[in-house]
Amino acid sequence: MIARGLPATTIARSLVDTWADAHRAAAVRGFDSVARGALLRATRERRVRPVELAPELSRRPNLPGRAELLELLRLIAAGSQSELELFAVQHVLSIPGLPAPRQQHRVLLPDGPVFLDAAWPAVKLGVELDGAAFHGSRQARERDLRRDAALAALGWLVLRFSYRRIRRDPEGCRRQIAAVYRHRLSAVPSPDILRPGMSG
Predict the structure, then answer these.
(1) Where does the Restriction endonuclease type II-like domain lie (predicted)?
(2) Which of 78, 109, 138 is the last residue before a domain boundary?
């Protein structure tokens, strides 16, 4: 690929090359985290889509760390945008007896749409994962409070979990989500109740 007369490469190829270098036997310790971070940032900022890496992977069947990269791309395509969200999907949000949540679920508020990290729309239950990078400042906390209040006005309940809580007590987080989900499910009226003209 040539850009302005100089050899260049695509973002997708650069990410795959970086991943390969980070997963070689002689790679510098910690370089794999750098490669993961670069991939998460590029996809979160929509500089590249997970599907755009597929041609590069098909050309390199012996890529070091290939299976791990494929699993990471699957999780990103499903909606994970950070290491905290990846951990939560693998250790918190898959709860026996509950349907799989929707990641990055869009809810339209009066001021515009918001996206919940995970949601069970049938019971209007959302989960937000509060990493320090995006939720640590006072302004961010005030923004989150305003957003949660607007969601509550539409009947949503949002559970917030800090990075520390998610990492230290994933089982406790699962229990809390399951208990709230089941409570809200029991409070959801049956379709018959909502039909006009029916008497109880």
Answers:
(1) 123-178
(2) 78
Q: Which of 62, 78, 94 is a domain's end point?
A: 78
Name which of 113, 181, 176, 119 is nearest 147 in CA terms: 113
CB atoms near residue 94 (< 10 Å): 12
Q: Which sign does the torsion angle of CA 24, 30, 31, 34 carry? A: positive
Residues 28-86 have pLDDT tens digits of: 889 999 999 999 999 999 999 999 999 999 999 999 999 999 999 999 999 999 999 99
pTM above 0.85, yes or no: no
Judge whether 157 and 78 are in contact, CB under 8 Å: no
From 50, 52, 54, 65, select the one nearest 20 (Cα to Cα): 65
What's the CATH code of the domain at 92? 3.40.960.10
Same domain, 64 and 137: no
Report how far residue 65's alpha carbon sits from residue 171's, in angstroms, rounded to the nearest whole number. 29
Closest to 93 measured CA to CA, from 13, 16, 176, 14: 176
